[in-house]
Design brief:
This protein is an all-alpha fold. The protein is built from 20 helices and no strands. Among the domains are: 84 residues, no CATH class; 72 residues. Helix 5 runs parallel beside helix 13.
């Protein structure tokens, strides 16, 4: 912004001033005033007052055109925006942060609206009726409460400000009365120069008044100041001291303005320049004619140079915003790629979901973009997120459909197994059940909620058949009492084992011998429970997993049951490994040499080692089948 040239009229001082040019006065008193002639109402206007009017209009223009760069809250999440609002509400001087509070409120409303829109989109994507959608957001109440509290504090502040303005108004009116009394009712011997200085100082220190009162109040003050000057008959000595004092003020202001040219923070320089123009208008006028235009031109030139730096600030901001736009567009392009994958499987979507969250966070952290492109950029970002969610949901809907088809096939196998589990046509049914087991393995996943149930039903039907088959074919050769005696001896031998060298091999031998022994009498079945309990204790003592034992003589059902247990444990371990890796991802420095993460890495390594061992065991079981 440029400042227009000042063109004050050059008027001569009145005749009384000319006659007093050579007068030497140390102290201006009311007695001296009485000896001079008071100028009539038709005398020329004081030139210094005209200067004040010209320069005031210039500085007001400067004051109005200075802008403040807004803070950027677009990278804040809803939770962070509400926290910032709460911080402002709790400040004693909360009224000073109304602009920031309103910007945060708009950001919070924007975030709430976006989240409700996303939830509604997902809700409708799932086929739900729109009229049943609940658009209430859990943070809406907190936002309303913060706005309500802040408004109450603002109202309280405005009321106190009105009272303060009224107090300041009364004080300024009192100062004007004192000024008026200086040229109407001053007692003889009063030091008018000292008194007018005190009046001016009091006026400068008086607080602010309401804007509606300021203009009339200010005009009233300068009117009486003019009358006071006229009363002094424009005393040359007084004017010279006044001009010298104001010239010194101007020189200080110009010096400070020059220093602002080197200020690195452009916005700070602009703000202080505005304050300097206010000082110029209120405290640095009038000055002698020969310095009036010269000092103003110098100050105006420096002001223009500072305002030229404002264009530098805007250029930097525009460059940064353009750079942010390019980065955000790159994020959007990557999101588009993830929304239209070439190879679609469950693993891809799990990795894609994680990457989308990273890209979303990266997008929100980036700063402002050019205002004219901001809305379109945000719309593109929201749309590509919706496209990704739609593609992901479609995949899992189709996956669910295939799982339901698999469930139907497995239910058919269960029905066939249950229909034939009591049959004794061994030549026909034994191959049938083996075929059923092979077909079961070929069928893919079923819905997780049904997986355990269908497996238990199928296993029960198979176990029932093979149990009947073994009982019918081995009943004559089973000596159950002798079996109990042999198992009792193995149990006692197992109890004596410690963790000495070779204990693991002895445990494996005992377990294999145990598997080779047939059934025991029904009233002695508790020996199996006792054996399993003792086995677990010895395995724990020797720090070995049960599935790591090399077992022999297992029946088909026992192998199948063992494989199922191993699969379940593998799934649990995989879930634990993923959780531990996710926990490590939250740390900025997630290296192994970080002492805080030492235990976590050791635990993760142990889980992975155990997982690999179980996979090998499962492979061996399947290969053996």
């Amino acid at each position: 912004m440029s400042i227009e040239n000042e063109n004050p009229e050059n008027e001569n001082l009145n005749s009384e001033v000319n006659s007093a040019e050579n007068q030497s006065v140390e102290e201006v008193t009311t007695e001296q005033v009485s000896e001079t002639e008071t100028p009539n109402s038709e005398s020329e206007v004081n030139p210094s007052e005209e200067v004040a009017t010209e320069e005031n209009s210039e500085t007001e223009t400067v004051h109005q055109e200075i802008e403040v760069v807004e803070e950027n809250f677009s990278n804040l999440s809803l939770k962070e925006a509400l926290a910032e609002m709460e911080t402002i509400v709790n400040k004693d001087d909360a009224h000073h942060f109304s602009k920031q509070f309103n910007a945060l409120r708009e950001q919070a409303n924007h975030k709430i609206a976006d989240e409700i829109e996303d939830k509604k989109h997902d809700y409708l994507e799932q086929g739900n009726p729109e009229e049943h959608f609940d658009n209430h957001h859990p943070e809406s109440s907190k936002l309303s409460a913060l706005v309500h509290i802040y408004r109450e504090k603002q109202d309280k502040f405005h009321k106190s400000q009105e009272a303060e303005h009224q107090k300041n108004l009364d004080e300024r009116l009192s100062i004007i009365e004192k000024l008026k009394n200086l040229y109407t009712n001053s007692e003889p011997g009063t030091n008018l120069f000292k008194s007018i200085r005190e009046v001016k100082e009091a006026w400068g220190n008086a607080g602010q008044v309401a804007k509606s009162e300021f203009k009339n109040l200010n005009n009233n003050y300068f009117h009486h100041l003019k009358m006071f000057n006229e009363m002094l008959d424009l005393n040359k000595e007084y004017l010279e001291q006044e001009f010298a004092h104001n010239l010194e003020k101007r020189e200080h202001i110009i010096l400070r303005a020059k220093e602002l040219l080197e200020e690195k923070v452009v916005q700070k320089a602009l703000n202080e320049l505005q304050y300097l123009h206010k000082l110029w208008k209120e405290e640095a006028e009038p000055v002698a004619e020969e310095f009036r235009e010269k000092t103003w031109e110098e100050f105006k030139e420096i002001s223009n140079k500072i305002h030229e730096r404002k264009s530098e600030l805007i250029a930097v901001l525009e460059s940064e915003q353009q750079e942010n736009l390019e980065k955000k567009n790159k994020v959007i392009e990557e999101l588009k790629t993830l929304s239209a994958p070439q190879n679609i499987n469950h693993s891809f979507w799990q990795q894609a979901i994680k990457r989308v969250e990273e890209l979303r966070a990266e997008f929100l952290k980036l700063g402002l973009v050019p205002k004219k492109l901001s809305n379109q950029n945000w719309t593109d970002f929201k749309q590509v997120l919706r496209d990704f969610n739609t593609a992901k949901n479609d995949f899992y809907k189709n996956l669910k459909g295939s799982q339901i088809h698999n469930l139907e096939e497995k239910l058919g196998l269960i029905k066939t197994a249950q229909d034939n589990m009591n049959s004794e046509d061994w030549e026909t049914v034994v191959p049938l059940f083996k075929k059923l087991q092979e077909d079961w393995k070929k069928i893919g996943h079923v819905p997780r909620s049904q997986a355990n149930k269908v497996w238990d039903d199928f296993r029960e039907a198979c176990n029932t058949f093979f149990k009947n088959y073994r009982e019918k074919n081995n009943a004559t050769g089973d000596n159950w009492k002798e079996n109990y005696k042999n198992k009792k001896a193995l149990l006692e031998e197992l109890k004596t084992l410690t963790d000495e060298e070779g204990s693991v091999e002895k445990i494996e031998n005992i377990k294999n011998a145990w598997n080779a022994i047939g059934k025991v009498p029904k009233d002695k079945l508790s020996i199996n429970t006792e054996f399993n309990k003792t086995l677990r204790e010895k395995l724990k003592l020797n720090k070995i997993n049960e599935f790591d034992l090399k077992e022999e003589n297992l029946t088909e059902n026992q192998l199948t049951d063992k494989a199922r247990k191993i699969k379940n444990q593998i799934a649990d371990l995989e879930s634990e490994v993923v959780q531990l890796e996710n926990n490590l991802a939250f740390f900025g420095n997630a290296k192994r040499d970080n002492p805080l993460l030492k235990d976590t890495y050791e635990k993760l390594d142990g889980k992975k080692e155990q997982l690999e061992s179980l996979r090998v065991t499962l492979h061996n079981i399947i290969a053996g089948e």
